[in-house]
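ERR on first pass: missing label on line 2. Operator R.T. fixed the label and resubmitted. Corrected input:
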Amino acid sequence: MTQKAILIDLNRCTGCWTCSLACKVGYKLDSDEWWQHVRTIGGGGIDEPSGKYPDLWMKWMPIHTQDCILCDERTEEGLEPFCTYNCPSKAMTFGDLDDPNSPVSIRMEEVREMGYRIFKLPAWERTRSEIFYAE
Amino acid sequence: MPNDKVTYNYCMGTGCHELCVLTTRSANGKVVTCEQTVDPASGEFITGICQKGIVYARYPYLEHPKRLKYPLKRVGERGEGKFERISWDQAMDEIGEKLNKIRDEHGSEAVLVNNFASSFPGAFTSLHMPLTWLFVHAFGASLFPWTPVDISIAWASIINHGSFFGYANYNSKRMTKSPYILIWGASPLGWTMASNTTRDIMEAKENGAKIVTIGVVFDSTAALSDKFVTINPATDTYLALSMANIIFRDELLDQDFLAHHTVAPFLVRNDNGQFLRESDVDSEGDPNNYLIWNTDQAAPQSVAPHGQIPEDSAPDLYAEQVINGIPCSTALVKIRDEVAEWTPEAQESLTGVPAEVVEEITHEYVETENSVLQISAGLRYKNGGPAVRAAMMVPVLAGKIGKGESLGLALGGQMGEHPVTFNDLPLIFPGGDPTKARGKFPLTLGEMFEAGFPYKALLNMMGNPVQTWPNRQLWTEKILPQLDLIVAYEVRLSDTALWADYVLPDTCTLERYEFAIMGDRLILCEPAIEPVGDVKDSADFYRELSKRVGIGEYFEKSAEEWLQVRLQSPDPAIAGVQPPLTWERLKEEKMVKLNLPDELVNSWANKDFLTDSGKIEIYSEHLAEVDQAVPKYFEPYILGPDRTKYPLQLYVGRHRVFMQSQFSEFDDLRQIAGGEPITWLHPSDAAQRGIRDGDRVEVFNDGGRFRCKAQLSEKMQPSITRVSMAYAASDWDGDPPQALMTPLGVPEVEDSLNKATHKYCRSHMVVPETLDMELHIVVAWETMWDNLCEVRKLEEV
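pass 2 clean. output:
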């Protein structure tokens, strides 16, 4: 059995949307079609913080919608998904959770040891269930 | 994939100085993807990619309506954008004829060439740069002064270190092991240095580094920092002087570093602020030699320019003496006395930074081993140069420069971190002979205007000055109308190209050959696809143009042939590669490890600095007559008396999904940026003007006015109005924001410090060596964020 997963380290995400655009370019999606996007956790809009200046807070959360195909063809060739491979800050790790030597299993262990919380989005968010978040 | 092809290509946007080389996959003559680059042989990571590089594959400026595919000749008014398609032969014949006529009637120097490299892919490593120099030198053209932006950091580094380019090469890998990163005048994280630098700083953060950002906008860098220190705009000098004050007060000075690597022990004449010279005390003495006070001998001791103070010598850093009747004190005393006033408490009401925060960040930065201060070009105010110079005193006084893995001070970005020298003389000088260089170098716009602007043609070979240099009217009303001929060589119909008489289509980086140096690798960039339409690369362009103006003999090579010339370098980094780094080997392997030491380059390793003294000139005698020998605050436009008329600061900045004016045409990126030009206002400023989120507003000052949607945001300080500089004039309802910006470098805005800088530049310029071009950057002051405006509501949503 293989259990494909992407672990997203929210402490490393800079909200740049490279992941979303790598997916869009890779799958030739229309301009208004996003299989994956980046949610700003803050004041609502993209890159809008919460709080009052200068006591502000903002993070980002890459969201893989159910349209995401986890780059099946690509990963079968031994490549990482577009989003994971191209993330400039190395916030994403892909692999097989059933294989303790796969990058995602190793990273999962690393972030656990650093005391990170690991979680998934609830089912009603209708996102890919293979996505884990660490922060 | 059928006909699958993999090539390496520069990203089309380079103003970030990350200089990413992307791995391009193409099939059936079309680009499929651009991705990050790893060495296929070793799996080693080479360069990352950001949202712009990724999207480049999708819109490789190939099918986009704004991509230029054919030569164009203007048929309407200048700036109107009406052109007809013509052939290369017609374009080159007509341009050549006009250039010959101008040269015959007004001299070759009446032809101006703009090659400001910012945002040109590959910048100094590109093939287009040396070939443009060659054209300038062979034709005898004048080079347009490089007075656009990034002045503050370049000016400060040239005054302090004698060079900017020589010290601005910082490999961000060095930051990964730093436990304390202080970011000032920069927004690297996910913003202006979104690729390797971001990756390395985020690695440091995971390793436990504390990241502190000093700034005015809460952007991604601020959000990812452990501490965001907000400072009143353009008051950074006070904060820096206060940090220096603390270093003196708490005896955190590195006396040994100051004594041997800076001018701190040099005696300064109290009467004129100049360094005391040997000839001041001894009529036989050398007028070049400086003097220090030797404590053991209780006598002055000579130090030659670039000379060493013996290790066992004991220079008195705090000497105050009367020598040969001349009262003197050391440069360090001058600095101590200057910063004495700026206690943490004294700066608080001016900067808005609490005294205890100044104490905290000063002690943390100075006392944390391997800490690093990253300063970039982000103090874009009239007083930004002295502000950066003041900030650079902190690592110097604390002896951090070049120390430890992090080197203590990171200037600028990764402008090609390894100083590898190609065999470029034959590409820069006619026949490879520097004595045949005929290029002219007007230093400032001021001197060009004072001379009656004796120019008749502009060849705009790089850059988009009409859109991205402040201010637009300087170009559209003062410079361009004086010219009989304007030629733009471009990949797209930029705002500058719209004003041209002839627009000639360049290749994009997916269609041409280049060399790239990434870390310790030389990478051969090759065309991923056939050039679209009828575009020509730089080598072909100059070959066609040069033969029409009588200098064809110097431009007979193709791009591939020029690269082979560049490779014939005696630099051991290239010549020492084993097996030998031949063109054939490079064509086969594409990416070859250069003969470089394993350790990362330390641009501070050579402590013989490029200043006159060879030391870090934290005290500059060149600026003594304008009272800036020790950096001082002076008033920027935004804090001047005009504030009553226009109470808001107009901050024209980058948007993180665009690269200056590039990429702003692409729908996917526009969606993320909000789809249209936006004015961001702080809710308190909006409330005072009855403006609600989404209302249509007008932003105006004496320079112009534009109308767009207002978005209320807490991310800027109150009284800042922020807009993106990325959008072309056609995107704006009204004047583009550049029209509202203070012009750079024109006589009306020059001050005494500019004049002192011009004098310094003239006396230090060794034309025709191209590195001296850095002296052309520093002849004006920044104005990008140093503008005032008012905003009024037009209609509700």
